[in-house]
Each structure stands twice: as C-alpha cells, then as structure tokens.
Design goal:
single chain; 312 residues; alpha/beta; inorganic pyrophosphatase (n-terminal core); Diaminopimelate Epimerase, Chain A, domain 1; 2 domains; six-stranded parallel beta sheet; six-stranded mixed beta sheet; 12 strands; binds manganese (II) ion
Amino acid sequence: MRITEGQYGDCIGPFRNVLYLCHRNADPDAIGCSFALSRAFGGEIGAVDDLSRTGVSLANIIGAHILINPPVEDYDLVVVVDTSVKTQLGNRLPSNYALVDHHLDEGLLDGALFYIQKPTKSTAEIVWTILKENGKKVDERVALGLMAGMIADTGRFKRATPGTFLAAAEILDIGGFVYEEAQEALSVPADLSQRIALLKAASRTEVTRQSNWLVACTEVNSFEGSAAMALVDLGADVAFVAGRHGNLIRISARCSREATRRGINLAKLLGEVGRAHGGDGGGHRSAAALEAIGEPSAILDSCQKKLLEILP
Ligand SMILES: [Mn+2]
C-alpha cells in the first residue's frame, strides 16, 4: 500500500518492535535516514553485511548504533530504507516489511505492508518530509545525519533539485550545526586498499568506442562503485566494473550527466541483465548495480552489448 509522508506515523504506530534496515555497504543516506526515523518513531537500526567508509564515519559522528545482520524475523516490522532490490539485502527480506526509498525499481513495492517511494535525489528528502508532517522535533544529530545523506547522494549538490535545496535550507535553519560539519563527516581519506583497487581497475580497463561514446569495462574485486565513478571522472561516458563476491558477481555502473540526459537508464539496464543471469539489479539512471551468477567477463559483455544497442 502506497502511503503519504503524513500517514507514516499512523502506519508505524501499531508496531512495538521495529527495525530500520539499511542495504549492504550502508551509505550516509541510508544511515542518516534510519537514524532519524528510529529517533523519531522508536526502533533499532541494522545493516546488511557492512557499512561504507563514509557510512562508518557518519555513524560515529552522530552516534548511530548499527546492528550488522540482525535477525530480521525477530521484529514486528522491518522498515527497509534507501533500498530497492532484494539482492541489496543479501536476500534477508523478512515477511513483514515496509519501505522508504528513492530509487526507480518497483520490485519491493508489492510485498510491502506500506511504502513511500519517490524519485527524490536522496531518501533524506523524503524522511525530512515525514518528520515535518508528523510534527517531530529534530535534534542536531538527526539534522546532521540527514544533511550528510543529501550531500552524499547528490554528489555535493551537483545533482540537486529545488526540492533538495529547500529541504537542505530548512534542515540547516533548525539544525544547530554548521554546514561544514556535515561535509567533514563525509571527508574520509581513501585508504590504501581502495586506492590500489581503483588503480588496478583503471589499468585493466578496456575501452570501446561507438561513434562519440566511450564505454569502459573492467574487473576488480572490491570498491566497484568507486572504480566506476573514477572511470567516468577520467572521461568514460559509461563505466561497468565487475567483481566477484563469493559465488555472486557484482557489477557497478556509472554514467556521465550527458549520457543520462540523452536517455541512458542504468537502473533499467542492470535490472534486465541481472535478471537474465539469475540475479537482479537496479538503482538510479546514472548509478546502478547488479548481483548475478556466472562469469564476470560474460556478464560485463552482456551489459556492454545491451548498452551499445541502445546508445543514440
Ligand atoms: Mn540514497
């Protein structure tokens, strides 16, 4: 059942024992939102497998206590936050769940007891509206967490909309923190293993050119998302980075703003390729990921082939 932000309080009210669950490699948007909702409505916070580097930094600064892989069936209700496909939860989706999210994929909607899903630039914008419309007071740590989520998901406001700026201004106005503090929470220097992974990814990259489009494909077994972003920064229009995680293959993809403007939708593309290879995928138009089964090179080929077919 789709609900409005204003109905959230009434919908969550009957549940005594609530878990806010973040996706794998939980990022500042997921953590800031789960923290805000748990402080406002009660409940614990969990994440699947691990937190991202900036996620750890933010959780420490706002004092969010996050359970890794909590037993989801022990809760009356699990609210899945900032997540749109089952594979991002390592298939730990409980039978009773609700959803608060800003991605494009619809896979989790039908099974949810209730959900809010809107294509805002961050889940934090939705959560901010939930807090306002349910008359919740916001303390400094909650405000800082939501601001950090917005900064992170909009690439420091490069992809912001009027709604993002409006929410950011309101949060800063009541927040009790200075803007720089939220930025600093995300300024974590890359550690050695990440820098090695990115350089390896770059050195192994194969570039395919079709008219004026440059598509980069590479394999590395960690930091796939950061590597794909780095390849787009280096000049690729679209980058696919594959990695092996146990018996699963993960592919992260990023594309330039120009590619998005010209109609590329990576959420759709990775969803289709993921499902064709026994998994699933999704995300946003310009940033998406899949998890599937098979050989990294074969799944990378499928992504590239599908992309070349649709490039204008
Ligand atoms: Mn997000």
